[in-house]
Amino acid sequence: MSALVSRTPANAQKLIAEANLADCAVFATVEEAVTAPGVDAVIITTPSGAHCEPALIAAAAGKHVVVEKPLEITAARCDRIIEACAAGGVQLCTIFPSRFADSSRALKQAVEAGKFGRLTLAEASCKWWRTQAYYDDGGWKGTLALDGGGAMMNQAIHAIDMLLWLMGDAVSVTAFTATLAHDRIEVEDTAAAVVRFRSGALGVVQATTSVHPGYPKTLAVHGDRGSAVIEQDDVLRWDFDPATPDDAAVKARFAAKVGASGGAADPKSISHEGHRRQLADFVEAIRDGRPPKVDGREGRKAVALIEAAYESQRTGRAVTL
To answer: Which of 1, 34, 94, 111 lies at a C-alpha separation of 20 to 30 Å from 121?
Structure first.
């Protein structure tokens, strides 16, 4: 069965009509939903700082759990979800759809194959734009209690997750944040950070909602044998020594496309294909009895790094993870 949980029945019915959901039940609370026959999993799409409580309810009821990014707004609250799902014997998935893009998979395969040689530097750039209305209309957006942070925690967390997925665990971070282009928000709209990875490689993160008109996110990986740069899902650079026929095939397959903004200025323009692929993996994981490709522990990593970056901004020091 399919079901929605909403405190506002009118909102639920509007979504049911827009999505053409047939025979979709509506519940007022998560507690009611998890007791209904036919409910196997709960997908949590509440504001970021309100992910933990419904996840705990679902896990205690023996329901598998999917949580939109971030898993939560602190590592400690992430841990509560992870521990509850382990105790309940249920699967936990953190939504990071960027990992499921074809170009991202090609980049991951290149890293695992050692094509870069020794990894030396990585860059994640999320120079996005959000209007003042984006924050004013959201109610919870831009608040510390429910957003947990700004451009790093809400927008660039996808790029930060990609850095960790490709480069390995981070060991320290130094960061600066500022609120430069928006009023009436408690969080940053501009951030820059330098990361040191366990391998010794360095990383640079740029995260904004303050750069007009907003540009596609970019991800770059460099090593002493090669470099690759992806803009949104397009491969801009793919240079290795020695070059192979596979490299030419990658360049041909991911030649730049026109108009791939990916939410640079409008969240509604973000494709749902990554979500579809990730949810398909989640279903397969349940059926196969294996962890999903992005489980709770994977989802926690980006939150912990961002939390450390905020501590660095507060203290003016590098923070060790």
So the answer is: 94
- Return phi, psi of residue 318, to 5°: -65, 140
Predicted pLDDT at 255: 79
Give the number of residues written for the chain: 321
pTM for the whole structure: 0.95
d(CA 242, CA 136): 52
SS3 content of the chain, % helix, strand, coil (to 5): 40, 25, 35
Q: Phi and psi (nearest 5°) for 183?
A: -110, 160
For the record, the structure tokens of 101 come out as: 């893009």
Q: Helix H segments across the chain?
A: 9-19, 30-33, 52-60, 75-88, 102-112, 132-138, 157-167, 245-253, 273-288, 296-315
Q: Which helix (H) or strand (E) holds 5?
A: strand 2-5
| CA pair distance 203, 160, nearest whole angstrom | 10
Q: Which residues of 178-195 are buried (b: 16+ CB within 10 A; e: fewer)?
A: ebebbeebebbbbbbbbb
Instruction: Give the model's confidence band at 257: pLDDT under 50 very low, under 70 low, under 90 confident, else very high.
Output: low
Quick one: pLDDT at residue 317?
98
Asked if residues 221 and 119 have their Cβ atoms less than 8 Å apart, the reply is yes
Spans of all domains in the chain: 2-96+278-295, 98-269+300-320
Query: 158 with 217: CB under 8 angstroms?
Result: yes
Is residue 68 pLDDT above 90, yes or no? yes
User: Mean pLDDT across the stretch 186-206?
Assistant: 98
Fold of 2-96+278-295: Rossmann fold (3.40.50)
Judged against a pLDDT cut of 50, whether residue 282 lies above it is answered with yes
